[in-house]
From TrEMBL:
The keyword Transmembrane applies. The chain crosses the membrane at residues 12-32, 72-96, 108-130, 150-170. It comes from Caenorhabditis angaria. Keywords: Membrane, Transmembrane, Transmembrane helix. This is Uncharacterized protein.
């Protein structure tokens, strides 16, 4: 049995992508807040979105009270993670499929789903970066300097975007490889295929 190293590489990258996406989603280091004058260092994530001051009425501690943009980020991350899990399982199934037609179709579906996951992650990190009010060089408020940075959880999401982009490309390459190396059984007679090619 010939070993398909490209497919193995794709599955391994899927596993890495799922791991990195899960770490980004479930860790609370998306935002790092520092107030040196008061000795305050605070971090928060998508699942633990709380404020520095507990008595602040604008604190968002439960999903129904999240602002709309944060709900979008959270949902995009969750759906993307779910899609990555689905396509990783589907990609494993391609090892056991005998029909070249079925293998090609499933590979193409995996490529499209991987692209959808890539888009969702890109949207999530784009919205978060634009809406989280990051101040890399500090913001002076009533004489007190406050620094708000993007934390390592956010950068893990960036890495996850890279992995989903790579898997999309590799799934496309895999599809072209299947079409090139195997004769695909089209559901049309050869005469119809020949006529179609010359009339297009």
């Amino acid at each position: 049995m010939k070993v398909d190293f490209l497919k193995i590489a794709v599955i391994l990258i899927y596993a890495l992508g799922i791991t990195v996406t899960a770490i980004a989603l479930f860790t609370n280091y998306w935002i790092l807040v520092s107030v040196p004058f008061l000795g305050i260092n605070f971090h928060r994530g998508l699942l633990q979105w709380v404020c520095i001051q507990k008595f602040n009425y604008n604190c968002f501690t439960k999903f129904p009270f999240f602002p709309g943009w944060l709900k979008s980020v959270f949902l995009c991350m969750c759906v993307s993670l779910g899609l990555q899990i689905v396509i990783s399982v589907a990609s494993v199934f391609t090892f056991f499929i005998k029909s070249k037609n079925a293998k090609l179709r499933l590979t193409i579906v995996c490529a499209f789903i991987s692209f959808a996951s890539f888009v969702l992650l890109s949207v999530a990190i784009g919205i978060f970066a634009g809406k989280s009010n990051v101040y890399y060089f500090g913001l002076t408020y009533k004489g007190v300097k406050v620094t708000v940075d993007l934390g390592w959880s956010y950068w893990m999401a960036i890495i996850a975007v890279f992995f989903t982009f790579v898997t999309t490309i590799l799934e496309g390459v895999q599809a072209f490889k299947i079409m090139k190396n195997y004769k695909i059984d089209y559901p049309y007679p050869p005469e119809a295929i020949t006529t179609w090619k010359f009339t297009m």
